[in-house]
């Protein structure tokens, strides 16, 4: 999410209250846990790093990428580097082209990429960039994306 500092923690807490999985704002050097959704802290980039078979989150205060910080490209590219083709990348909504390069990296390494269809998307810029780049394995309406993720997870194993 492209969100300012101080907002992402509240968003994570709210989503955690209504979600079946744990949702939290990512912390620097935190070990990645199965079944947890991490939200990049506002105004910071989030990357994953593997060391000694442990995957950890790295929160960095770099320059904006694609005029945004956090950048989906930064996060998605690092996820692809860590997990290779065992990834499902999803772009739901957003302005601009952020995320397209990261989704390409996921796609090129054998992962699956889902983009939200224009008719159910609030802001179609980011999903459109993924589709235009030719890396969306599937374009689905918002209400079908969870099912599509589950289908791809079965395929990936």
Describe this structure in words.
The chain is an alpha/beta fold and 157 residues long. It folds into two domains: 1-70, no CATH class; 84-157, Rossmann fold. It contains five helices and seven strands. The chain has helices at residues 8-18, 72-83, 100-108, 125-132, 145-156; strands at residues 22-25, 36-39, 45-51, 54-60, 88-91, 112-116, 138-140. Strands 5-6-7 form a three-stranded parallel beta sheet, sandwiched between helices. A two-stranded parallel sheet has the order 1-2. Helix 4 (125-132) links the parallel strand 6 (112-116) and strand 7. The longest helix has 12 residues, at 72-83.
Helices and strands in order:
Layout: H1 8-18, E1 22-25, E2 36-39, E3 45-51, E4 54-60, H2 72-83, E5 88-91, H3 100-108, E6 112-116, H4 125-132, E7 138-140, H5 145-156
Parallel strand pairs: 1-2, 5-6, 6-7
Antiparallel strand pairs: 3-4
Helix pairs in contact: 2-3, 3-4
What is the CATH architecture annotation of the largest domain? Answer: 3-Layer(aba) Sandwich
Total tally of structural domains: 2
What about the largest sheet?
3 strands, parallel
- Radius of gyration over all CA atoms, rounded: 15 Å
N-to-C order of helices and strands:
HEEEEHEHEHEH
According to CATH, the fold-level topology of the largest domain is Rossmann fold
Shape: globular
What is the terminal-to-terminal distance?
Answer: 27 Å
Going by CATH, what is the homologous superfamily of the largest domain? Methylesterase CheB, C-terminal domain
Helix fraction, binned, reads 25-40%
CATH class of the largest domain: Alpha Beta
Average pLDDT reading: 95
In terms of quaternary structure, what is this? single chain
Number of strands: 7
Share of β-strand residues: 15-25%
Instruction: Identify the strand order in the major beta sheet.
Output: 5-6-7
| Strand-pairing-aware structural class | alpha/beta
Number of helical stretches of at least 4 residues: 5
Protein name: protein-glutamate methylesterase
Pfam families: CheB_methylest
Domain CheB-type methylesterase: 1-156
GO molecular function: phosphorelay response regulator activity; protein-glutamate methylesterase activity
């Amino acid at each position: 999410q492209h969100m300012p500092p101080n907002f992402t923690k509240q968003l994570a807490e709210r989503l955690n209250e209504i979600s079946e999985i744990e949702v939290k704002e990512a912390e620097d050097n935190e070990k990645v846990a199965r079944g947890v959704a991490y939200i990049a802290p506002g105004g910071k980039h989030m990357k994953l790093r593997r060391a000694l078979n442990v995957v950890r989150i790295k929160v960095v205060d770099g320059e904006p990428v694609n005029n945004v910080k956090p950048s989906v490209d930064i996060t998605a590219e690092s996820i692809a580097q860590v997990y290779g083709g065992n990834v499902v990348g999803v772009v739901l909504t957003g302005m601009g082209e952020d995320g397209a390069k990261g989704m390409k990296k996921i796609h090129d390494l054998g992962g699956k990429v889902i983009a939200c269809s224009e008719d159910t998307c609030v802001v179609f810029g980011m999903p459109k960039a993924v589709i235009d780049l030719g890396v969306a394995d599937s374009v689905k309406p918002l209400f079908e994306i969870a099912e599509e993720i589950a289908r791809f997870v079965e395929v990936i194993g």
